[in-house]
Design brief:
Elements lengths: L1 H112 L14
């Protein structure tokens, strides 16, 4: 009977030792797991902050691009208007040039048909 009691005591002591070892290493593992989870949470929080910061930067860039697009569109409209005005002015100038040429042609014809006396041309010579 003593042998059985010793075996039972030995088994209980071994179970107690295994339990103590697992508690020590188990708690250590749990602490490590908890620390890793806290680090992961901090990393996730910082990543979320970075994503929010990047999103705000992208929104700012998008807003600036819209303003720039509006600015470019205004410039294009102004250039188109200036080009149209320039073409109108050139067309008016062409019509004036044509009118001037026709007037000059008429005046030349009038001069040719006019009976003016000949004009003497004096030539000055150098000595």
């Amino acid at each position: 009977m003593e042998k059985i009691v010793r075996i039972i005591l030995l088994v209980v002591v071994v179970i107690a030792i295994i339990n103590v070892v697992t508690m020590l290493f188990g708690n250590s593992s749990l602490r490590d797991i908890r620390k890793n989870l806290e680090k992961a949470k901090l990393t996730a929080d910082s990543a979320l902050y970075e994503l929010q910061y990047s999103k705000s930067k992208l929104d700012s860039i998008k807003s600036d691009m819209l303003v720039f697009s509006t600015y470019i569109n205004r410039i294009q409209k102004t250039v188109e208007l200036n080009d149209f005005e320039k073409r109108l002015k050139e067309e008016k100038d062409r019509s004036k040039i044509i009118d001037f040429k026709e007037n000059i042609k008429k005046l030349r014809e009038d001069i040719e048909t006019d009976s003016l006396p000949d004009i003497d041309v004096a030539i000055v010579r150098k000595n």
